[in-house]
Amino acid sequence: MRPDTRLSRMLHVLIHMQHHEGTATSDAIATMLGTNPVVVRRTMAGLRDQGYVRSEKGHGGGWVLARPLEEITLLDIHKALGAPQLFAIGLAGDNPNCTVEEAVNVSLAEAMDEAATILLAKFGKVTLAELAAGAAKASKGKLAMEHF
């Protein structure tokens, strides 16, 4: 199963948008991410619907942040992306009458539910501004803006 990288990729895009003057086109974002502009528009539309970005039409149009990074958490973006599955681990269902399979599934489900609760709580505490500050500190204050 391929990992779902949309959260990481959109966090990357949003932080760059904060430091970019003007709009970021779907084409430019797609080039940065190595994907198709249609995928970018579809993904950004979900973020727009939740009020995190807005689109500007016409010549020079594109995407801009609609809210400051201090007001957006990892959890916000996770939810705006449709709350993708957090774990690739799945439960078996080959032998529904087997008590061993049932016990294994119950134990795994409990552990994954606990882990998801902890992870989502952490997502809710981390703002994109904090991520941006960490990136700026790591790059000694210079975030590369050549992406857009």
From TrEMBL:
Gene3D superfamilies: Winged helix-like DNA-binding domain superfamily/Winged helix DNA-binding domain
Listed Pfam families: Rrf2
GO molecular function, one term: DNA-binding transcription factor activity
GO cellular component: cytosol
Lineage top rank: taxon: Bacteria
Protein name: Rrf2 family transcriptional regulator
Record organism: Aminobacter anthyllidis
